[in-house]
Amino acid sequence: MANSNAASPFAIWHGMERKNIDWHPTVDESKCTGCGLCVVTCGEKRNVFGYDLEKSKSVVMFPENCMVGCNNCGVACLWNAISFPDMSYLKEMVEKIPAGQIQKEFQKKITDNPALIAAPSNASFPKP
Ligand code: SF4
Ligand code: SF4
């Protein structure tokens, strides 16, 4: 299912197109008790889950909003009704991140948020 929001803030993941990354929860209806915990666990900005009021089951509505690598809802679901791709797939994706991309994002984040610098010094940023 595609993201309904063409201008999604989640369209790019570390320099890669999010739509080409197959990371999102899958709900096993036979195990889902309909408690709604996954719906409230997923952040308000991402809102990956909707809810089928007729079936009383959660539904993955916006898979491309899912944060690549997150599995919080899967951990939260006490009925093991939520699954994700194997972690080896995630590793494959991480290995495809363009060279220097993480260092660029990291430097920007630290520079924009000086409160995150635990021990100010004259040392430079680590090399990738
Ligand atoms: S947390 Fe699990 S059991 Fe509860 S609604 Fe979500 S998938 Fe279903
Ligand atoms: S893995 Fe994280 S971001 Fe993805 S649907 Fe679950 S809680 Fe939301």
Structural class: alpha+beta
Portion of residues in beta strands equals 5-15%
- DSSP strand tally: 6
Assign the CATH topology of the domain at 12-97: Alpha-Beta Plaits
Instruction: Give the proportion of residues in helices.
Output: 10-25%
Q: What order do the strands of the largest sheet run in, or round the barrel if closed? A: 1-2
Please provide the ordered H/E string of secondary-structure elements: EEEHEEHEHH
Determine the number of helices (DSSP H or I, runs of at least 4 residues).
4
The average pLDDT is: 92
The geometry reads as elongated
Using the CA coordinates, give the radius of gyration.
Answer: 18 Å
- Bound ligands: iron/sulfur cluster
The CATH architecture of the domain at 12-97 can be given as 2-Layer Sandwich
Instruction: Specify the CATH class of the domain at 12-97.
Output: Alpha Beta
What can be said about the biggest beta sheet?
2 strands, antiparallel
Low-confidence stretches: 1-5
Distance between the termini: 35 Å
Describe the protein's architecture and organization.
The chain is α+β, with helices and mostly antiparallel strands and 128 residues long. The chain has a domain at 12-97: Alpha-Beta Plaits. It contains four helices and six strands. The chain has helices at residues 37-41, 72-76, 87-95, 101-112; strands at residues 12-13, 16-17, 26-27, 49-52, 57-60, 82-83. Strands 1-2 form a two-stranded antiparallel sheet. Strand 1 and strand 2 (16-17) form a beta hairpin. It starts with 11 loop residues before the first strand and ends in a 16-residue tail after the last helix. Mean pLDDT is 92; it is low at 1-5. One iron/sulfur cluster is lined by residues 25, 41-42, 46, 48, 66-67, 70-73.
